[in-house]
Amino acid sequence: METKICQSCGMPMTEEAHFGKNADGSKNEEYCCYCYPNGSFGKDETMEEMIECCVPYMIQDGTCNTKEEARKMLTSYLPTLKRWRTN
Hints:
The structure is a single chain. This protein is 29% helix and 15% strand. The protein has one domain (4-80). It is globular. It has 2 helices and 4 strands. By secondary structure, it is of the alpha+beta class. It starts with a strand and ends in a 10-residue tail after the last helix.
């Protein structure tokens, strides 16, 4: 099975609990439980705010070693996700 990636924060959604919920309580296939808990985005934030929110998790899970490295990776990756795409 292909791992779904949250189209807001980039988190891999590898189990049912990771998926967000639509307004009717059904599973949302595009966004995670943290970004899209109840049929809408949990926080109205900018991409820059999302980057800062994600930096500690990138270090914690070992994806990046420093805040600067995480920030650089997120700055190039997040604009490719559905929530942040401008075209």
